[in-house]
């Protein structure tokens, strides 16, 4: 019975580790998604990785978020009618970055994109490694994912021994 409790606790801990590695960004920080804001400046110094989340906060029915391609972004053109699934309108849109590469977002309300409601980011595959603990070298650090694998292997072995 105790081994089941340990297994459940370990699975819970591993589930808590993975999401903690992702970063959630509020686009525009406290300003949110609006005209007249410099999103190019907002992106500077930020690194986006697969698994991170972008939250677009704005007044519903006054703005939207359209996922577009590079050409549409440059021309401030919203997605075509056949691709309207890329149009978000809730006022609190959360996008999980699922693939690497450039991602483009605009507001399709008249003149909003030309007034600055456009965002382009580059998404990388892996997040940065955690910094080594003070007084240790990076060579001795073990990733959370690798640690989780070792924990699961140890628990499986423990379960087989106890059976």
UniProtKB/TrEMBL annotation:
InterPro entries attached to this UniProt entry: Cupredoxin, Phytocyanin-like, Phytocyanin_dom
Compartment(s): Membrane
Residue ranges of every copy of the Phytocyanin domain listed in the record: 23-125
Membrane topology of this protein: Single-pass type I membrane protein
GO biological process: response to symbiotic fungus
Signal sequence segment: 1-22
PROSITE patterns, alphabetized: PHYTOCYANIN (PS51485)
Keyword Signal attributed: yes
Keywords noted in UniProt: Copper, Disulfide bond, Electron transport, Glycoprotein, Membrane, Metal-binding, Signal, Transmembrane, Transmembrane helix, Transport
GO MF entry, a single one: electron transfer activity
Domain of life of the native organism: Eukaryota
GO annotations of cellular component type: plasma membrane
Identification of the protein by name: Phytocyanin domain-containing protein
Organism field: Buddleja alternifolia
